[in-house]
Design a protein that fits this description.
396 residues, 14 helices, 15 strands, globular
């Protein structure tokens, strides 16, 4: 029987496929080390878990308003004001089932068939697929390692056409860890206003910046704020990936569109997770500061080790918890008669021969690179680095 042509054009998430394969191997007893998942390895803070238990015991297990509870919306508004200098009313907040769901809502709300969305690459694997689900056209804007994986404003200007509806900004970035500076964001804001574009600002890694500070592009005045949809969530900041709470802050008319659709598609986000999210947002950032300190140690060790190995190299990321390793120096080398001719080939052989799972760059539109996540223990990182050295020594 016939199926949807649009859905058939959507690719599975390569990061989740790698993570699934790694977990299956580990469950079968294989001594495999995984660096694929974008997931903090630290446990959710205890006060958040207690808030969830209290919510269950107090009967907070029923439907809530589709776009989120008043309590959580109020807590999000306070967070945006205190941490980002952004004033939003609760009516402008839409709480969803994770930031991925929030982004799906965003593209559905702002795009019509054929509208283009500029996505700087390397980019998170889901952005193009989400745009296609909304009948839009993803337009990659290629960045280079030489420019720290950031585009120049003239490159963005050159990519804009009469069909361009939005540009995606992900700072800090998955997968590169790059961070846009204030002057760069201001230039983007000015161009977006001039060209009448939306800015989809994915700020999910905002608290994982190791040098400098996070600045939301929406904070540069009402004109750009009205054009910006801020996307955030609790997964990375509070190690709450499985709790599935994300949110957007936007102009009222966009928030209303997303809320209306969500009321039909998923109803409300999990009521218990919403109660826990209030506790997370009101409980301070001590957990985040401790997590950052640990990530800095892991990042510095991983970067130093990679850059000490012939054939591979990397930049030191300024944020998030990923390292993009340039492995182009291994092209043409082989092991057991199998030649490395792409990041996909490297990742497959590295998993098969060395029992290490990394994500090939092709899914991020970054041929010649693989992504390592250092959101894992230092023990695993050391093991992974040693296995990388041994694997490369075995290449011919």
């Amino acid at each position: 029987m016939q199926t949807s042509e649009k859905y058939a054009r959507i690719s599975a998430s390569p990061t989740l496929l790698i993570d699934s394969k790694y977990k299956a191997m580990r469950a079968s007893g294989v001594d495999v080390v995984g660096f694929g998942a974008g997931e903090p390895d630290l446990d959710t803070p205890i006060h958040i878990k207690k808030a969830a238990i209290a919510a269950i015991e107090n009967g907070c297990t029923k439907y809530t308003p589709a776009s989120g509870t008043p309590e959580l919306k109020k807590a999000i508004c306070q967070k945006l004001l205190t941490e980002n200098g952004l004033f939003y009313a609760p009516s402008q907040i839409v709480v969803s089932n994770g930031a991925k769901h929030s982004l799906t809502n965003v593209f559905g709300a702002i795009l019509n068939p054929g509208d283009e969305v500029i996505i700087p690459t390397p980019a998170w694997v889901s952005y193009p697929e989400m745009v296609k689900l909304a009948d839009g056209v993803p337009v990659p804007l290629v960045t280079t390692e030489e420019n720290f994986f950031k585009f120049k404003i003239e490159d963005l200007a050159a990519a804009i056409t009469d069909k361009t509806r939005a540009v995606v900004i992900n700072s800090p970035s998955n997968p590169t860890g790059m961070v846009y500076e204030e002057e760069e964001l201001r230039a983007i804001a000015e161009l977006a206003i001039e060209k009448d574009l939306y800015v989809v600002s994915d700020e999910i890694y905002e608290h994982l910046i190791y040098e400098g500070k996070h600045i939301s592009i929406a904070s540069f005045g009402e004109e750009i704020k009205n054009r910006t949809i801020v996307v955030n969530g609790l997964s990375k900041t509070f190690s709450m990936t499985g709790w599935r709470i994300g949110y957007t802050a936007s102009a009222d008319h966009i928030a209303k569109l997303m809320s209306n659709v969500q009321s039909h598609s998923t109803s409300n986000p999990n009521s218990i997770a919403q109660a826990a999210a209030v506790a997370a947002l009101q409980g301070g950032l001590d957990f985040v500061h401790d997590m950052k300190a640990e990530y800095i140690k892991r990042r510095d060790y991983m970067v130093e080790q990679i850059n000490s190995i012939d054939g591979v190299s990397c930049l030191k990321p300024a944020g998030a918890f990923y390292v993009m390793m340039n492995m182009k120096g291994l092209y043409g080398k082989s092991i057991d008669g199998k030649v490395i001719d792409s990041a996909n080939t490297f990742a497959a052989l590295f998993l098969e021969k060395a029992m290490v799972a990394v994500v090939p760059g092709e899914g991020f539109k970054a041929d010649g690179y693989v992504r390592w996540s250092y959101a894992t223990s230092m023990e695993n990182i050391k093991k992974g680095m040693e296995r990388l050295k041994v694997f490369i020594r075995q290449l011919q």
